[in-house]
Amino acid sequence: MSQNPLVWIIDDDDISKYVMKRYLNQLMVTNVIDFPDSVQPLKILQDNYNLTDKLPDIIFLDLHMPVLNGFDFIKDFQKVAPKIDKKINIVMLTSSINTEDVDYAKTFPEITDYFIKPIKHRDLARIINVELKQ
After folding, report:
1. Rounded Cα gap, residues 134 and 120, in angstroms
2. Residues contacting residue 123 through CB under 8 Å, at least 6 positions apart
3. Taking the model in full, what pTM does it have?
4. CA-CA distance, 2 to 63, in Å (whole number)?
5. φ/ψ of residue 28, rounded to 5
6. Nearest-CA neighbor of 43 among 11, 73, 63?
7. Most buried among 5, 30, 54, 61, by the most CB within 10 A?
8. What are 94's strand-pairing partners?
9. Is the distance from CB of 132 to CB of 85 less than 8 angstroms?
10. What are phi and psi of 101, to 5 degrees?
């Protein structure tokens, strides 16, 4: 992974996106794109699966969103993932403390981590540091 990974934030909550971008900027991660829902990023993945420089290194994915929720996004991502020649780590974020959501998220190998929003700065720093070492 590059020293400045491409990070996607897929979240319909503008405040959460603002906080995440601010934390990422403090961690010197400036290559960040945010989306208000998961429809456009899914299309980008499907249309550019062979262009690894256009694909994210990390996706921070909100669970509860309109149109396609986080689990729907993962299911569609699984269809295109075999074509992608790049490891994309997906971190699920949610305001839900429902243990069923956590348990269900653990059934998807694409989801590398799961956090209750708002994500803490130290947790974000750990994720970025681990990713940069890969």
Report:
1. 22
2. 115
3. 0.94
4. 27
5. 65, 25
6. 73
7. 61
8. 116
9. no
10. -65, -45
Per the DSSP assignment, residues forming a β-bridge with 9 are 34, 60
Q: Is 2 exposed, middle or buried (0-12, 13-18, 19+ CB in 10 A)?
A: exposed
Give CA–CA dist 104/32, Å, rounded.
27
- Does 118 sit behind a cis peptide bond, omega within 30 degrees of 0 on the bond before it? yes
Tokens for 109? 């190998």
In the chain, the DSSP E strands lie at 7-10, 32-35, 58-62, 89-94, 111-116
Give pLDDT tens digits for 49-100.
999 999 999 999 999 998 899 999 999 999 999 999 999 999 999 988 888 9
Q: Cα–Cα distance between 59 and 33 in angstroms, integer? A: 10
